[in-house]
Specification:
The protein contains one helix and 20 strands. With 397 residues, the chain is mainly β.
């Protein structure tokens, strides 16, 4: 811990010098960051008697370096980011890993009424222990490619469409049954009001393809699925301080095998933003959606949740943020062969953070968070409590 805090202090001292944070380029912006955290239940173990003598908590340090860029080319805008992270743990040093994040995106325009986006990203990180509670390092790699286009064929009407492909892979052999490709294709028609509000309809098809079958006892389960959606897509600019976004409608999810897992019904996500003053902003969300679970016995769930976040700019240099979140995941009926009827879990999360900007290019921060889960140990998502405290410093040149 003293070494990590010394690194933080050294970084802060260096970066607060005016010459150290002078802008290198209007287009390319290198950045560095250091985060030191303590997690009192790193492996998300239950509250019962320990199964071994290994400590529940650990300290971890993350050092990041990278660069971001944005380059206008006529009316087109090319942007991207490359970031490398080195994460080390004090006790569980077998989890030490190098993280990588790369992103490239193009915002394109043709004539005055056609526009869209084209991009790709790569992310390598440690798989969270919330559903995967084995004391083994499991790196997850996600590739994403996307393209979308919109044509405003009338001042008040727009038609749009897009395709997104996500690919997930894992380096731990025992978890490779979670490797999959998700291909989403969508199209929509929107009415654009003069007030900035929008109302439309969106059709979407999501196809999930798993690279290998999952062994459940002597049964090999094909987890491929197809999901079809018909949703209303609404943005309501109620006033200068209040906006509402809603994407909701009918969703049908079908599986290639064990059709008892098939489900359909109402899915939606709503987001409300409210900024009563220039210094205070609230964001509330609610959702009911199908989701993927990275577990040993289940691979999807129906999630119902809500969250509330607030940001308060106490001064030009100091801001405070806080959030609460609750989500229940229902696994009942997703596999009528191996799961109990009441298979579900509920997670409550709270966070509190403080940010201080001593210089326009330097940011210091501290945060506290707490996660509480009540779940079923039968399906590997048992109950646990976890508290995390973090300190960070970052600078962009």
């Amino acid at each position: 811990m003293p070494g990590a805090l010394g690194l933080l202090a050294g970084l802060v001292g260096t970066l607060c010098c005016g010459s150290a944070v002078a802008a290198i380029s209007d287009t390319v912006h290198p950045f560095v960051a250091v985060t030191y955290s303590h997690d009192d239940n790193l492996l998300r173990r239950g509250d019962g008697p320990p199964v071994d003598v290994a400590p529940r908590g650990d300290n971890l340090k993350q050092v990041q370096a990278g660069l971001s860029f944005e380059r206008p080319i006529g009316r087109q805008i090319l942007s991207g980011e490359a970031k490398w992270s080195k994460v080390s743990f004090d006790h569980y040093d077998e989890f030490n890993y190098d993280g990588k994040d790369f992103l490239a995106a193009l915002e394109w325009h043709v004539a005055n009424h056609v526009e869209g986006h084209l991009g790709a990203s790569y992310n390598q990180t440690l798989t969270p222990f919330t559903d995967f509670q084995q004391a083994e390092r499991n790196l997850r790699v996600q590739h994403r490619e996307y393209v979308d286009a919109a044509w405003r064929f009338h001042p008040s009407w727009r038609v749009r469409g897009g395709v997104t492909r996500d690919r997930f892979s894992y380096d731990l052999p025992s978890q490779r049954f979670n490797e999959r490709t998700e291909l989403a294709t969508e199209g929509g028609l929107d009415y654009l009001a003069a007030s900035g509000s929008r109302v439309g309809v969106q059709l979407r098809k999501l196809k999930g393809s798993y690279a290998s079958r999952r062994a459940v006892g002597t049964l090999l389960v094909d987890n491929d699925y197809d999901q079809n959606e018909v949703k209303a897509n609404i943005y309501w600019n109620y006033s200068g301080i209040t906006q509402l976004q809603l994407l909701g409608g009918w969703v049908e999810r079908k599986h290639a095998f064990l059709t008892l897992r098939d489900a359909s019904g109402f899915n939606a996500r709503a987001v409300v933003t409210y900024a009563p003053t220039g210094k205070l902003r609230f964001t509330g969300s609610g959702w009911r959606e199908f989701g993927v679970v990275e577990s040993t016995l289940v691979n999807n769930s129906l999630n119902n949740g809500a969250s509330l976040a607030a940001v308060y700019a106490a001064s030009a240099k100091v801001s405070v943020n806080a959030s609460v979140r609750r989500e229940q995941r229902d696994f009942s009926g997703l596999s009528g062969v191996v799961l109990p009827d009441d298979a579900s879990d509920s997670t409550r999360s709270t966070t509190l953070g403080l940010s201080y900007q001593p210089h326009r290019a330097v940011t210091l921060g501290a945060s506290l968070s707490r996660d509480v889960r009540d779940g079923s140990a039968i399906i590997g998502t048992g109950s646990y409590r976890a508290n995390v405290v973090s300190f960070n410093a970052s600078a962009q040149f």
